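Notes to self after the Tuesday call (sharing in case useful).
The group wants a holo model before anyone commits to mutagenesis around the pocket. I volunteered. Ligand is guanosine-5'-diphosphate. Logging inputs and output together so the record is complete.
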Amino acid sequence: MSSSSAWAIEQQSRKAFADLKVVCLAGGVGGAKLADGLARALAGDQLTIIGNTGDDFTHCGLQICPDLDTVMYTLAGVANVETGWGRQGESWTTLAEMTRLGGPDWFRLGDLDLATHLTRTHWLAQGKTLTAATAHLCAQLDVHPALLPMSDQPAPTLLETDEGVLPFQDWFVRRRWQPIVQRVILPADVKATPLVMRALSRADIVILAPSNPFVSIDPILNVYPIREMVADLPQLVVAVSPIIAGTAVKGPAAKMMPEMGFANSAAAIADYYADLIDLFVYDQKDAGILLANDPHQLCTNTLMTSPAERERLARDILQTAVQLLQETS
Ligand code: GDP
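Result:
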């Protein structure tokens, strides 16, 4: 395609998406990549990302928010795409010295990454909310879509495993997600922030990113009244499968599906979200799968291996969603 016709198509679809308000519920790696694609397809004020804070924990006195940071670093173009966490061009002087001093080094924090946690912890110690601290960090890193923590209250995810109940990072990082998960324990009585509720109430389209359904998306939906708003408001709800041909692109989702009593397939993901979604997006490698409840479907390449592919997937999803909105209005 010539660059002028590519430009014309981009202008056309920008126009088609011009007045849309989109909310994306996102965990870490999969969520961050789709959020970045959406940010490339939409203007900054059209997109709000609601991030999972169920993985957050305090380490060496610092408040660490792994999923929010993965999204923020990805949108800022400074993420380490090989690891899926932390910053590119990172140095490890502090961690090496912590190891020498016998400090806790099981959770790897690079020098640049530490600056984020120090700044956030400082802001929280000044009495600011996590929402305000996140907005401050995003502004400094030139991130334009709103990145909202799902709540300003702590909402730690626990895993009931064959080795007992483990805090999320103990299971995920320290034990390298090997203990078999029997149940994910999510906290009761966690409330969404007013900004999260405002974004959801104004959204035309809500997208459940291709994130782990049990430990990335469920912790967000568990925050009152996010699930109720996603289910009841008239917006179009889209889910993107994190499972492609029975495997997870990264992380424990495929290992967890059978542990949690589900088939390891994109169809099982559609089933899991059946009561919420209008449109299910899954990979071309799964073409021909049968979906219960018959949601609208988009079967396409969902593997986002480059910024261009993130944007292409985002545009495909938005285009299909806009068509559905037009058909139902
Ligand atoms: P985590 O907190 O870093 O594990 O973040 P997420 O839950 O957002 O991301 C993990 C999930 O993202 C895994 O289940 C992956 O299969 C999925 N994922 C990562 N990259 C891609 C991608 O390019 N396409 C799709 N469809 N899923 C992806």
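Two things stood out.
The chain has a mean pLDDT of 94.
The pocket of guanosine-5'-diphosphate is lined by residues 27-31, 33, 67, 70, 84, 210-212, 216, 240-242, 244, 248-251, 253, 302-304 (CB under 6 Å).
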